[in-house]
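Format is chain and fold; as here:
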Amino acid sequence: MASVISSLFINASIIVSTVLLAHILLQDPRFILFKTKQLASGFFAGALGSILILYSIPIDEKILLDLRYFPILFMALYSSMTAAVFASVLIALFRILIQGVSEVSLLAAGITLAIGIGSGWIGRLSLPLARKWIAATALVCILTGSAAWSLLRLNTDRIGIIATYLSSIMVMAFLMYAFLTYITSVNRKLELLREEAEKDFLTGLKNPRQFYKSLNHYFTVTMENERKVSLLYLDVDHFKAVNDTYGHSGGDLVLQELGKILKRATRSHDIVSRKGGEEFAALLIDCNLEQAMVAAERIRRNVESYDFKLHNQRSTHITVSIGVSAIPEKTQEISKLLEQADRALYAAKNAGRNRVEIA
């Protein structure tokens, strides 16, 4: 029994270290060898399950205890059915490859595929995660326990062996659930911290620091690949009057709605930011000057016609002035891009506001 516990500890350590390594690598697109993250995750899970086969624990001459099925459950419950089935196929093939074609290896391969499909189906159910874990663990116990019961039909200690096998599976399932719940919780907190560090607290848009970081990145990409990028600077006209009339809470509501308008009027890969106060910026990726003018004019019209709802069923209308510059049509220097967009914005305001001006 002591040797079984020691071997299970080694298996658990392999799982924990591999899961942490895979988590780090999957966050970096340079390490993804497949077109989708699902297949990449399934590959890592299949590799982990294959490694765990090498550390199998012999309980009987026909029965080996290992944790090869847990990577499949990880994919089914935390990724997708595609990843779970892909991982199960890799593990089944590896099992046959190293132990040859036999009744036992083919049975093990069939059970592995059945667990991949079954747990993948369980992962799709609208159940709490804990119940999914219970259901998936029960599936593993039923399939592997039934196979073990059949293989040990001539063994007088069949009940004791299967009891040891199934209890080990259930204990490890609980430990793996606790481990992954902890990892998921930590990841969620890190994601929230990342979002808070990158976004403006009021509008949910990018904050200036993240905007300038993105600007530097896309400027480099543009210069290296001869792509185009445009910059819009936007300012709310007479915003002080809004605050004076409706208070700062009313002004905040206007800015929040304006942020939504900007997001709807731009594409998902464009970078929209609140510079501060009533000033905003939009970095339009793969967008030339002519297209940027069209986008800016669309934003101006959308803002002008929008009915901004305030407290107590009150509403107001605002307008914006927008300055536009672009790489490479207007400049090939990032400092001049910013300067030209700023000048164009002030030109729009000096020309009467509620208009778009080019650098």
The beta strands are 57-58, 64-65, 229-236, 271-276, 279-285, 308-309, 315-316, 320-327, 356-358. DSSP finds eleven helices and nine strands in the chain. The two ends are 78 Å apart (CA to CA).
